[in-house]
Design brief:
- The complex is a heterodimer.
- Chain A contains no helices and nine strands.
- By secondary structure, chain A is mainly β.
- Helices cover 0% and strands 50% of the residues of chain B.
- Classes of the chains: A mainly beta, B mainly beta.
C-alpha cells in the first residue's frame, strides 16, 4: 500500500475553511484515496473517498490533482465539533487489501 | 442497524491472566481487523482476516492471537497480558471486492493491565 504523509496538527477558528493535504507519492493506478475522522475515544468513521479530480459530499470536499500524488481534504466553515483527528488512506479497489495502516493522522483543533 | 460490536468496553486485568475481547459484525463483511491506539502512535493494526480461517499479522502482532471460525466474529486473545498491552482497542470490518471498501469500526475497548 502507498505510504501517506500528512501534517501532525492544524489549528483553525470557527467559520473558517480548513484544508488538510496528504502526500501519497507511490499511489498505484488501482488505488482510491479515502479520508476518515476520529473523535476522542471513538472509532474512526468514513468521511469521503475519491479517485481523481474533485468529490464533494455534505461533509467535505476532496481535491485530487491529475498526477494523484497528493490529495486535499477541504472542510468548509468548520465548527468546534470538527475538532478531531483526520486520517488519509490509500486503498486498492477491486479485490480488496491485506494490511491497512492508518498512521498518526492530523489533529485538527478548532477554536472559538 | 449495521454495526461492529466489541466486548468488553472497559476492562482492568492483572498481568498473565488470559483474556478475550470479542468482536462481532452484522454486515456479512469478509474483512475484519484489530487495531490498538496509543497516545502519539496513532492506530496500529494488530491482526487482520480476509475471510473465515484466513488471518494474518498486522504491524504489531506480538502478544496477541486471533481466530476467525465464523464470518461475523473475530475475537482478540491475549494469552498472557502485560502492562505494555494497556491500550484502546478497535475492531473493524469492511466488505471486499468493492471499490474503496468503507471500513466500519466498533466503539472501542479500553484495556488496562496491572
Amino acid at each position: 500500500l502507498a505510504k501517506t504523509t500528512q501534517p501532525v496538527s492544524m489549528d483553525s477558528y470557527e467559520g473558517q475553511e480548513v484544508n488538510i493535504t496528504c502526500s501519497h507519492n507511490n499511489i498505484a493506478t488501482n488505488d482510491y484515496i479515502t479520508w476518515y475522522q476520529q473523535f476522542p475515544s471513538q472509532g474512526p468513521r468514513f468521511i469521503i473517498q475519491g479517485y481523481k479530480t474533485k468529490v464533494t459530499n455534505e461533509v467535505a470536499s476532496l481535491f485530487i490533482p491529475a498526477d494523484r500524488k497528493s490529495s486535499t481534504l477541504s472542510l468548509p466553515r468548520v465548527s468546534l465539533s470538527d475538532t478531531a483527528v483526520y486520517y488519509c488512506l490509500v486503498v486498492p479497489r477491486g479485490s480488496g487489501y491485506s494490511t491497512l495502516t492508518f498512521g498518526k493522522g492530523t489533529m485538527l483543533l478548532v477554536s472559538p | 442497524e449495521a454495526q461492529v460490536t466489541q466486548n468488553p468496553r472497559y476492562l482492568i486485568t492483572v498481568t498473565g491472566k488470559k483474556l478475550t475481547v470479542t468482536c462481532s459484525q452484522n454486515m456479512n463483511h469478509e474483512y475484519m481487523s484489530w487495531y490498538r491506539q496509543d497516545p502519539g502512535l496513532g492506530l496500529r493494526q494488530i491482526y487482520y482476516s480476509m475471510n473465515v480461517e484466513a488471518t494474518d499479522k498486522g504491524d504489531v502482532p506480538e502478544g496477541y492471537k486471533v481466530s476467525r471460525k465464523e464470518k461475523r466474529n473475530f475475537p482478540l486473545i491475549l494469552e498472557s497480558p502485560s502492562p505494555n498491552q494497556t491500550s484502546l482497542y478497535f475492531c473493524a470490518s469492511s466488505p471486499q471486492g468493492v471499490p474503496g471498501n468503507t471500513i466500519y469500526f466498533g466503539e472501542g475497548s479500553w484495556l488496562t493491565v496491572v
